[in-house]
Structures are given as C-alpha cells and as structure tokens.
Write a structure and sequence with these properties.
Blueprint lengths: L2 E2 L2 E9 L10 E10 L2 E7 L6 E2 L2 E4 L4 E4 L1 E3 L11 H8 L4 H6 L4 H9 L3 H16 L3 E7 L6 H17 L3 E9 L10 H18 L5 E6 L6 H13 L5 E4 L7 H7 L4 E4 L5 H10 L2 E4 L1 H6 L8 H7 L3 E3 L13 H10 L5 H7 L2 H6 L17 E4 L6 H4 L6 E5 L4
Parallel strand pairs: 1-5, 2-6, 2-7, 8-9, 9-10, 10-11, 11-12, 12-13, 13-14, 14-15
Antiparallel strand pairs: 2-3, 3-4, 7-16, 16-17
The chain binds 3-[(4S)-2,5-dioxoimidazolidin-4-yl]propanoic acid and fe (iii) ion.
Length: 403
C-alpha cells in the first residue's frame, strides 16, 4: 500500500548537501516528500517508495537546496549608523570611532530607547529580505542593550519574529559585546554583573539558546570571555565567539578550549588556533560582509581551515556598524570572490555547515529523511549561479516546515 504523505515535489534536481565536503550530493531526477513538516524521502525518484499525497508539485527541472541558514546575525537593533559610515568614508578608522563612544554604544542608545514592538517592527524588513532569498533558519544575537532590561527586550523581540514569520529563530545572548558608558571603563565589574545578574535572568526565561562574546582589544579580554563562558556552560548553554577579527588574541583557541559551537570572523587566526578548532570540532563562521564593509585586508586562513578539515560556514553578520548586509546570496559571492571559497564550500556554508555552527545539524541543513522539510527551489540551470550572480535573486519558492 502507498505511504501517505502531505506533499511531494518531483521532477526536481536536488543539491542535498548530504554528500562529502566537496560535493553537493546532487540528484538529477529527484523527489522530495514531506509529512508532518519533516522530510519523509529525498533522493532519486526511481528509488522512492510508493507515495500518496494530496499535493504533488511538478518542479519542471528546477534545483532544490536545503532552506538557507543565516547562522550569525545581529538582526534586532535600534537606529542605524549611516552617519558613521560617512565619517569612515572621510577616513576615520572603525576602532577610533568605537573608542570615541560611537560604534556599538551609539546603537546601544537607540536600542535602549526602543520598545520590544519597535525592535520587532524595525527588524521585519531585514528579515523579509532574507526570507525572500530562501532563508528558513536564522540566528539572532542580543548585544545592543548592554543592561538587563534592554537585553531581555532584544531577545524577546527575536523570539517574537519567529511568531511573526514562517522561520526558525535561534537566539544568542551577546551581553559581552561592548562596555556600556555607565560601566565607566570597569570591564571586570561589568562582566561580574553579566555573569551574576544578566545571564542567570536570561537563562531563567529561556530567552537564549547560546552565549557569544566579542574577544578584541576594543571589547573583552580572553580572561573576561572565559568568565562568561564558564557561567554559560554552568547553565548548560552552548557558546560561540567573535574571535580574532581585528587582531590575534588567540580567540579561536579560547573558543576551542570551551568546546564552542563556532568561532566567528577569524581574519587574524593563526595555525595554532586552526589546529585547536579542528581538535575541538569548533566550526569556523566566515563573515565576508564585515571584512568587505570595514575594508579589512587580511582574509581568514581558509587554506588552513580546509587542510585541517575545520567546517566553514558563511553568514551575513547583519549589523548596523560593520555589516549592514541582508543578502545571503551576496554573502556567498563574497565568500568566493574575497575569501576564495569554492562554489561547493559556499553552498555548504549557508546550509549544512551553518546548521552545524548552530548545533542544529540533526534537524536541518541537508535534504535527508527525518529533518525539517525546509526547502529553497531555484530558477537556475546549475547551482553555481547562486554564488556567481550579484543582486539577482532566482528563488522560485521557499518551503518552511513542509509549508
Ligand atoms: O559595530 C557594531 O554595531 C557591531 C560590530 C560587530 N560586532 C562585533 O563583535 N564585531 C563586529 O564586527
Ligand atoms: Fe557579529
């Protein structure tokens, strides 16, 4: 007897992303079947079980990839930093602006002044731009509140976005993003309040799925990050780290030491940091939008990550200061053009490896039975077109949880 399912997509070419690191797991005459929001079958039509569905879509030869995953964003924030952008065009360096109380702190002021509803409303156009390109899972960080109430509001707004749109949202507490003015330069005291008051309150409300920190001269030291990570692990929360972005503070090795899901940015990571990540199974999240926008010149050591077998993900790092980017397709083009990633690495970077960087590979990131039926269906002749073009969005249809 035929197996009942809810929906079938046939006459499709699949990039399952379930093959090895360097191939797309391609299936020429493929079929995907969904039941109760999950993939029941994905593979060659000729090997599919006998299926019966009320809805059968003829994909007319279009490509189907896993729904795209943006695994590193600061999507929820108040205001914007266009004025700073102009200053930087006049030659003022990013770090100088940050030290002069601009940068993250100026977004902090706008975020503290915003209600949860304001934060949701201002994030929606950014979220809709990503959804329009087939994003089905997104990570959203806090880190512009820098005090408990505003950090709670940011994380509640992120959770609210998952109710406002058909998308999976995973949240990350990034209280260790910058020092708020009221801390009067005392970073250790701020970290003390963060681990003693903010993190426990946020964990109690279940508002954070992970904890992140910014390990950098203009932010927090490895010792201060270690205090945050120790508290996160004690609360059973996974960690990730903004590491080695502007200098080498050995953030990658610090992240690996705490078994972090990922270390992110990594422009200045050295061979020891790469080896530590490989040993710990910590994924690299590469953020070419920030590299491009702040005109960084030192690219992350992609050849070392590749040789060491460190998984590489790509993400927009959507944030108002260093990466006002809301296109994961453009991010893939920059991953190839600026960091010399291959097409297969770019596509894996926004699907399988992005899911891995979020600890969600068991649920999404590839077209495999049992995973969420999150699909992106594309009007392209070959998958390379998704990395090659800049600005043209060939999405034909987006399916989230089988719908
Ligand atoms: O400038 C901002 O608003 C965030 C910058 C962003 N945060 C971080 O830790 N590194 C970055 O590039
Ligand atoms: Fe970031």
């Amino acid at each position: 007897p035929a197996i009942r399912c809810d929906r079938i997509w046939r006459k499709a070419r699949l990039a399952t992303m379930a093959g090895g690191r360097s191939d797309l797991g391609m299936v020429e005459d493929g079929l995907v079947a969904a039941r109760d929001g999950r993939i029941l079958y994905a593979g060659p039509a000729g090997e599919a079980p006998d299926l019966d569905a009320p809805q059968v879509e003829d994909c007319e030869g279009r490509w189907i990839t896993p729904g795209l995953i943006d695994c590193h964003t600061h999507l929820v924030f108040g205001g914007d930093r266009a004025d700073e952008f102009e200053k930087r065009l006049a030659g003022v360096p990013y770090e100088e602006i940050a030290r002069a109380g601009g940068g993250i702190v100026s977004t902090m002021r706008a975020t503290r002044a915003a209600s949860e509803a304001d934060l949701v409303a201002s994030a929606l156009p950014r979220l809709d731009a990503l959804i329009a390109e087939g994003v089905t899972t997104i990570e959203i960080k806090s880190g512009y509140g820098l005090e408990l109430d505003a950090e709670l509001r940011q994380l509640r707004a992120a959770r609210a976005l998952a109710k406002a749109r058909p998308i999976t949202v995973t949240t990350t507490f990034l209280g260790a993003h910058a020092l708020p003015p009221e801390a009067a330069g005392d970073k250790d005291a701020y970290i003390g309040r963060l681990v003693g008051e903010m993190l426990p309150a946020i964990a109690r409300e279940g508002l954070a799925d992970a904890v992140d920190a910014f390990c950098e001269g203009i932010a927090f030291s490895p010792e201060q990050v270690a205090r945050v990570f120790t508290a996160a692990k004690a609360l059973g929360l996974p960690v990730k780290l903004h590491a080695d972005q502007l200098s080498n503070l050995h953030g990658a090795a610090l992240a690996a030491r705490f078994g972090a899901l990922s270390a992110d940015h990594l422009e200045h990571t050295d061979a020891a940091g790469v080896a530590a990540m490989a040993q710990a199974g910590t994924a690299a999240v590469l953020l070419p939008g920030a590299y491009y926008f702040i005109r960084e010149t030192k690219a992350p050591p992609v050849d070392l990550f590749r040789a060491a077998g460190v998984p590489m993900a790509l993400a927009t790092d959507c944030n108002p200061g260093t990466s006002p980017l809301t296109s994961l397709l453009m991010t893939m083009n920059m991953g190839a053009t600026l960091f010399r990633l291959t097409v297969a690495e770019c596509l894996a970077g926004v699907t399988r490896e992005a899911a891995r960087a979020l600890g969600m590979l068991d649920r999404t990131g590839t077209l495999e039975a049992g995973k969420a039926c999150d699909l992106a269906i594309w009007d392209v002749e070959r998958p390379a077109e998704l990395v090659y073009r800049m600005g043209l969005n060939p999405l034909h249809a987006r399916i989230w949880s089988g719908r």
